[in-house]
Amino acid sequence: MAQRLQVVLGRLVLSWTFLLPSFWQGKAGPAPSPVQTQTQKPLPAGPPAPQSTHYPILLLGFGNQPNWSVRIGLKGPERFDREGYPPIPLEPADVTHEPSGQGWTYHAKDSATGALVAVHLSREACTDATNDTLTTTSPLGGKYSFKISIDHAQIGSLKGCGRIATELFPKINNRPEQQDDDDAKKKPPVPVSSVSKFQSPISIAYLDASQQIVFKRGSIVRTVPGGSGSDLSASHDGKRLLFVRQGGAVRTINEYDYDSHSVKELLRGDVRSPRWSPDDSRIAYLNQQGGKWQIWAFPSSDSTKAAVLSSDSFESIQDWADPHTLLGTTPNQVALAWIAEDGRATQTLPIKDLCEPDFACGGMLTARLHPTNPDLVLVSAAFLRPPTGTPAVENGQAGALFFYEFHSKRRSVLTLPNLSATDGEWSRDGFQILFTGTDSAKRRTTYRVFWDGIGLQKYAPGTSLVVGL
């Protein structure tokens, strides 16, 4: 009985061994013939999945010592900021994506000078910056999410860190109802200045329409007694004003005191261009001796102690670089010269390097150093090729204002639509430019604009304005 059972079970196993493959083949259809197998072609491969060439989040790159930052928007780098300099608008170009998927190189152009800019971003922990320049708070864990470097063809290379910074960019509103608002579409966006904190001048002086000297402190306006004058220079404490008056062949340097509303003569002779030192302790001026305009100086409290500082010849005194150094121009506006206490030039810059090939720095030249950054100067000159709409009303020339950086030699014009600009001056906070603007109808008044070229407005009803406090 046991032997019979074994034989039956063995036959069943053999039957299922042969029947199961045939059963499943029938369910799946007939097997292909050898000929069909040889002629069957593989299906064509589909296109590769698209890969983004940049990191699709709004980012802020930054570094310290010196402080700098670069904003990277959806199209690429948009603005490059450095402490003590006006912001640089950037024109985004192409983006290169590294094969690793963890790095991007953004290419751009300096909108003002055309210099090439490259920003490299990599997704890795970064400790190259202690803060993001907008706040002194350090990142959680002491590390940022990205490493970043920026290379500017004129300024050089800077390294730092990066973080996601969507709060710095305009909000994107995708509400459908706004797409139908034709009026909103036609309105161009209103430019917003990068200057968020500034201090308007408290004390200023200027010439009114009748060429009388006006001294304004706060809301109180006073006319300096005694007639007209020129070569205005306000003290940094905002209480005194130097100016020159001429009677026949004789000039006098005078001091107006705001509190007492009185004028005092300091010097008489062939003198001009008085300038307060940064701490108001000294006054420098030009004194013609032996046919040369020499630089002289005296303590502001005692003009009888006036003495020669440099016996060389100068065209003008432009500014004080620091309490011990004057910035002047050599005869015929050949060069800017930094004059030390011993009367020697410690540094010179040819005027042609400062101005050419875009500007003519002749009789309209003024050069004002930034209040806190000696590498940056505001220059008033004349356009050689004026932009469309700029009136040529300054003896047939169109006045221009531009910034110049001594170290990088970067020059950028301050765009002032439909105005000829002269006599540019810094506010004491260094964020505002005040200048005499003339329109096509030859109407002259003082304007104010932020150093990024935004916020242009009329400021005072006069010309040749200087800032005290």
Description:
The protein is mainly beta and 469 residues long. The chain has 5 helices and 33 strands. The protein has helices at residues 2-28, 34-39, 176-179, 182-186, 351-355, and strands at residues 59-63, 68-72, 77-82, 88-97, 103-110, 116-122, 146-152, 156-164, 203-207, 212-217, 220-228, 230-234, 240-247, 250-257, 262-269, 271-276, 282-289, 292-299, 307-310, 316-322, 325-329, 335-339, 345-350, 359-360, 366-369, 376-383, 399-405, 411-413, 420-426, 432-438, 444-450, 457-460, 463-467. An 8-stranded antiparallel β-barrel has the order 1-2-3-4-5-6-7-8. The protein is elongated. Residues 1-29, 46-51 and 172-177 have low confidence and may be disordered.
Set out the fold topology.
Blueprint: H1 2-28, H2 34-39, E1 59-63, E2 68-72, E3 77-82, E4 88-97, E5 103-110, E6 116-122, E7 146-152, E8 156-164, H3 176-179, H4 182-186, E9 203-207, E10 212-217, E11 220-228, E12 230-234, E13 240-247, E14 250-257, E15 262-269, E16 271-276, E17 282-289, E18 292-299, E19 307-310, E20 316-322, E21 325-329, E22 335-339, E23 345-350, H5 351-355, E24 359-360, E25 366-369, E26 376-383, E27 399-405, E28 411-413, E29 420-426, E30 432-438, E31 444-450, E32 457-460, E33 463-467
Antiparallel strand pairs: 1-2, 1-8, 2-3, 3-4, 4-5, 5-6, 6-7, 7-8, 9-10, 9-33, 10-11, 12-13, 13-14, 14-15, 16-17, 17-18, 18-19, 20-21, 21-22, 22-23, 24-26, 25-26, 26-27, 27-28, 29-30, 30-31, 31-32
